[in-house]
From TrEMBL:
The keyword Ion transport does not apply. SUPFAM superfamilies: C-terminal domain of transcriptional repressors (SSF50037). One of its GO terms (molecular function) is transition metal ion binding. It holds the Pfam family FeoA. It comes from anaerobic digester metagenome. The keyword Iron applies. This is FeoA domain protein. Residues 1-71 form the Ferrous iron transporter FeoA-like domain. Keywords: Iron.
Amino acid sequence: MTLDKARKGQVIKIKSIANELIRVQAIRFGLSEGEVVVCREIVPAGPVVISRHKQEIAIGRSLARNIQVELC
């Protein structure tokens, strides 16, 4: 499944980021493959908010659609 399909409260692991440009953007946020994060909020028609190590990150839907995740 992709990150934009995650539900609030789910603990997820980033499985893969296929697109090189998207991977570079994710690394700027401090996200990489293998990282475990928590989905904090899904803003309707807006970003997906995740948390990692007490830091909340809002990821745009277009970016989230390109990040493959799995439930932990």
